[in-house]
């Protein structure tokens, strides 16, 4: 866990808005069916000021007006990097190029690291059948 904390600290220090990283985490967790991560991610985002409209719409971000172009680029990157086996070109140039329009190299590295760390935890939780707590305090 200390090593994961270092990864998170590095990602959080790169300048990407924490709200964007929260959306990325939530979307990857939804895709992977990770109940504990989706639940805790939504709750944490809500505590940090995220709106219900945006949280409810993350799964359908393309069809809703609630996200900035930069957030949309990060969400598209999260989807591609999470669904690596869905196509031969897992992260198409257009997805990467759109993200690169909104984020510099350090920020892109942080987003990719955040996606990878989220996928790591999703896989642990799903494999071991972890459940979201019923009573959050």
Walkthrough of the structure:
This protein has 137 residues and is mainly α. The relative contact order is 0.20. Helix 2 runs antiparallel to helix 3 (35-47) and helix 2 (18-32) runs parallel beside helix 7 (105-127). It is built from seven helices and no strands. The model has no long low-confidence stretch (mean pLDDT 94). The longest helix has 23 residues, at 105-127.
Judging from the principal axes of the Cα atoms, what is the shape?
globular
The helix/strand order is HHHHHHH
Count of DSSP strands:
0
Low-pLDDT parts are none
Largest sheet: none
Distance between the termini: 23 Å
State mean pLDDT (0 to 100 scale).
94
**What would you call the structural class?**
mainly alpha
Quick summary of this structure?
With 137 residues, this protein is an all-alpha fold. The chain contains seven helices and no strands.
Which structural traits does this protein have?
137 residues, 7 helices, globular
Secondary-structure blueprint:
Layout: H1 2-12, H2 18-32, H3 35-47, H4 52-57, H5 69-82, H6 93-102, H7 105-127
Helix pairs in contact: 1-7, 2-3, 2-5, 2-7, 5-6, 5-7
